[in-house]
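Section 5: illustrative case.
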């Protein structure tokens, strides 16, 4: 839970900016997007396998110097 306590003379724009930064650091938006729709176990397994494949592909990428 992200919580911001505004200062006495603090403008609303700066409070909102601090709140957005805190929500971003807490990782609330990606979690919210992930749980937006129901995902069947088969879809979840496919998504995890695809992520694992992408990570493996990124790990073994060769740089040409």
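Designed sequence:
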């Amino acid at each position: 839970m992200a919580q911001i306590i505004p200062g006495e003379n603090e403008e609303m724009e700066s409070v909102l900016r601090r709140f957005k930064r805190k929500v971003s650091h807490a990782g609330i938006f990606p979690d919210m997007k992930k749980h937006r729709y129901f995902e069947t176990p088969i879809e979840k397994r496919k998504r995890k396998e695809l992520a694992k494949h992408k990570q493996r592909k990124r790990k073994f990428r060769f740089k040409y110097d």
